[in-house]
């Protein structure tokens, strides 16, 4: 049994507690009395959507699984909560400036996503951050608010810089952030060439030490940013070129997922002092960009671990506002407009990947019956099985390992037949299961015995690709909440990991959230015949789509944009069809028409040689032609 209820019959709340739903899902995900996950796209302020009913409705519209469901109302709600937190902090501390954020396009470049953020953020003059020329083109085409910031980060060639300068003439507000010393001369040349200059920012390479996976974003070995000597040289170069008056922004970045608020405080103090010094050197300044890093509590533990944070959104806003004020006011420096590039915290919650389980696999469970002519090795294993008690678990397991090894040696030497070896393995597994069931629940057993549970766990085969939909789980061991989206009113009876469709041993989900740590197995239900078993992967709206790859040529999934409808229910705003087999083949420079023609010619030759009938050839060509137009994932 995978999980034992503490008292009484199993309830929906037991299911929610088991998967930590109330911790990481608040305020957007909860359950209903039917044991289904529900989505509250506007948090506690709006209605809810039954996720199972939504999936069934989308499938009725010929949108097959796996499905990426984007809740645009969550994006807007995240924006509102971010601005409300800074508004409260500014009012509480009597801060004389304001907050004006930007969304880093790299976090999710999908057109409908960026469009929704720009549209929803207009009331706050919310802007965009571009880290490449292509992202700059996206931002220029979508951002038409002259008061919104367009932060230009990343490597910049001459055309990039001239585009930003011309965009300022167009009425946009681009800020070209100097991140490498050699960019200064290019900015000066571009400004001389066009007779105009961009607004300029400088990224400081802070000495503050960060923590976690992105700790190298700061410090002497950081990829971007100017050291203090380089920062002073840049200031003088801009002064000599007559461009110091355009230096308006100081930028820093200390990691994509800040898990410890103390790190942010240290960085803010250092950056606040640098900001004041730049002002005293004659730069007008006006903006302090605290970069990204506002974290997401993926596991709900509210701790300073890699998959969590030890602070709330309000804590974050309070510390930014208070610390910057403390740095500026004593020295008479006007407080800046505060800018953040909070992409992960805005986009993570708004999408849910739903996929179905195609089948399961597990170690054999049944003990084969003894036979009169069993060899000694099998008789020994039967005797071991019959003699297992709570008092001799380790001794019994040692015997199982010995007899299993003997069986393999005997088979190699020809003294054991293949059916006999198979029965020996079945007996070994049966012993392992019996020992596992008798282990105490307090984990006091030796580690070798505790590991039996993992060895005996089931594998659930999911209709999705880790490399396409959740690449960070494979690349950097990112933890995302994963759980069934229904049957929460039933007690799970299995422990398992989840394998994807790819022919790769890394194509699996084998780390699951558990209160600040992780566990290798997830409590799951036994699939019911002819009934789907649906799994949701949550909080993966940031970075996963753009970094997903075509491993085994599994392409993008169907994606839908959902909004709450006035008066209840939902609106299907946009449908983005996933890749077909033809799409992914063309991405690899294969010509589907040529492939089909080659197959037709081969079929004609087979027909002439009477190896293939005309009807079979027609059926083969028909299957291939229709497969080219189908989604890359398995169909029902």
Rounded Rg: 30 Å
Number of helices: 23
- How many beta-strand segments? 23
Helix content: 25-40%
Largest sheet: 10 strands, mixed
Output the structural class: alpha/beta
The average pLDDT score comes to 94
How are the elements arranged and paired?
Layout (H helix, E strand, L loop, with lengths): L11 H7 L2 H4 L4 E3 L5 E3 L9 E2 H10 L6 E5 H22 L8 E3 L6 H10 L6 E4 L2 H10 L6 E4 L5 H13 L2 E6 L4 H12 L4 E5 L24 H13 L6 E5 L9 H20 L6 E3 L23 H16 L8 E3 L4 H4 L3 E11 L14 H11 L6 H20 L5 H21 L8 H4 L1 H5 L1 E5 L3 H4 L1 H5 L6 E3 L9 E6 L8 E2 L2 E3 L2 E3 L2 E3 L9 E4 L6 H4 L10 E7 L5 E7 L4 H7 L4 H17 L5 H15 L8
Parallel strand pairs: 4-22, 5-6, 6-7, 7-8, 8-9, 9-10, 10-11, 11-12, 14-16
Antiparallel strand pairs: 1-2, 2-3, 4-13, 13-14, 13-21, 15-21, 16-17, 16-20, 18-19, 22-23
